[in-house]
Amino acid sequence: MAGLVLQNLIKQYGTTRVVHGINLEIENEEFVVFVGPSGCGKSTTLRMIAGLEHISGGRIYIGDRVVNRVSPGKRDIAMVFQNYALYPHMSVGENLAFCLQQRGTPRAEIATKVAQAAETLDITSLLDRRPSQLSGGQRQRVAMGRAIVRNPEVFLFDEPLSNLDAKLRVQMRGEIKRLHRLIPTTTVYVTHDQTEAMTMADRVVVMNHGHIEQVGRPLELYEKPATTFVAGFIGSPPMNLLPGTLSGAGDDLGLTLENGTTVALRGKVRAGVEQARSANVVLGVRPEAVGIAAQGPQGVPVPVTLDEVEPLGIETLAYGSIGRTTLCARLAPDVALQAGAPADLFIDTDRAMLFDAETTRALT
Amino acid sequence: MSDATFSESHADDIPLEATPAIDHVKRALYIILGFAIAAIFIMPIVWSVANSFKLPAETLSDPVRLIPRNVSLDNYRNLDTVGDGLWSFVRNSLFLAVGTVVVTLLIAVPAGYGFSKFRFPGQNVIFVVILATMMIPFQSILTPLFLILVKLRLANSLTGLVLIYVTFQLPFSIFMMRNAFDAVPKALIESARIDGASQWALMRRITLPLALPGVATVAMFAFLNSWNEFLAALIFLSQEEKFSLPVMLVNVTTGIRGMIDWGALQAGITITMVPCILLFLTLQRYYVRGLVAGAVK
């Protein structure tokens, strides 16, 4: 068992740098999820860890060993690919046995290990079938079986659930977590789906443009996003980001939005104002901190035009516009609101936060 | 409507629409046309086979008849009197064809693998040059090839001829194999590398089995082309004991007292085409897949 350390990791294609010196320590048996939009460098980073991509700079340690120049087969890792990458001409059993055969494991031991892995994943009855005869979920399980059969130091998952339908995805998410509890192994999991990141990870690494935006526990990311990018990426619907200019002082302290509306800044959000280097800031507020009536003493009304009201059963989402900016409110399911009408939405400034408009970093 | 009503219909109750008569007629015409076109292609073969089983005299007097009056193997016996005998020709042809297949595969499979999976300087140029050799008409370089074979002491030798055939087979074969290996998904290869497979294991256990349709296509083309090849065989082989079947067929037409033995010729043709047809029928399933490999993802 081993942890994983990325030290100043760089990936460059010609003169284009796609990963800009990443530093990250992943502890033994930790489940870390890399999340970010496509092209953010998360898959490239994973592929460098796997050894499938040449490392342009920096170091990767698996345990105490620098693996920069170690071939993928000797890094003691296992990887689950997005499209499963099962060998189509081999049976499920042969697929599981392949990596053990390549390592010269004795035949009897291979049989035991394959049987064990198959049992863990409940695919014993499929061992004689070909991958083409399996359903998507079954293939996914076989791909995982192939990863666990040889008991690697590190598991790597490259968007493993993106080919499955929504229902199966939720189910497999649970299975991967269960597997991780059953066989605790250092795991790096790449996805663009923030729900997967939030539900599965011990720690989430949010990446953007080849940089790490923030590393933290899922709730930490939700409650204290370090940048506007993280704020907009984590959470569904994402955090409302209202750009504006600080105005007034003392009790009159407020934020003047683009269309001239001023939002009074009260309560805890004021802590950020002191950190501000310029008057240009972004007010971040989660949809659940926006209501149709003042929630508590720090509720501040903002006049909006309601564009859209989406009753979802468990809740109703209301989208109002303030000039060009959209403000989303997460409301009780029974509110009666009419799209197209003007309304007042109340921002709970105690639960809001400020970001520097220029650096996009959080000020609180 | 204020009230919507729901009712479930029972599948048994729904009347099925009859297929219109015009569709039946169209289909019948289509099938008849198909048979007619097939017949045009198949008839020469059928006639050859039919005539080969007639008495030699009947072959001459009534070549059009499809079912022989008396089934006889005389034509085949006559064929055996040509030159060193039928089996000598068959043996030579088999040596040429199998030899060409084996050597072509031994070279084209690794070459195609290299072009598909490795990046090296000048790769594209080398590949284009290899393909460009396909544009040179083979007849135009027969003389230099003959001189080279004489220098190598391989003139009038079946081995030498195999090398000639392989040379002409290689560009297409390498091209085919490269496409076949290209069609193997990259993720499978990466997965195998993570599984610890060596380059050799990767080719033998993963990519080659998946590129088998390509291998089948290459093997089939190499076999058919060398089995049927006439001109080079005629020029490079000078001893009768080394002649291949196509050369024998010419000897049959001109050999016996200047008169063409049509019956023996048909028997020779029949024997010559049987392996080709069998091979094609066996491999056609792979052959189509091999040709279109890499065409669509």
Would you spell out the secondary-structure blueprint of this structure?
The complex is a heterodimer of chains A (364) and B (297).
Chain A: E1 4-13, E2 16-26, E3 31-35, H1 42-50, E4 57-62, E5 65-66, E6 77-80, H2 92-102, H3 107-121, H4 136-148, E7 154-158, H5 166-182, E8 186-191, H6 194-200, E9 203-208, E10 211-216, H7 218-223, H8 228-233, E11 240-247, E12 254-257, E13 262-264, H9 270-275, E14 280-285, E15 290-291, E16 299-311, E17 316-322, E18 325-331, E19 342-348, E20 353-356
Parallel strand pairs in A: 3-8, 3-9, 6-7, 7-8
Antiparallel strand pairs in A: 1-2, 1-4, 4-5, 9-10, 11-12, 11-14, 12-13, 14-20, 15-19, 16-17, 16-19, 17-18
Chain B: H1 21-52, H2 56-61, H3 74-79, H4 86-117, H5 123-132, H6 142-151, H7 158-182, H8 186-194, H9 199-210, H10 212-228, H11 231-236, H12 245-255, H13 262-291
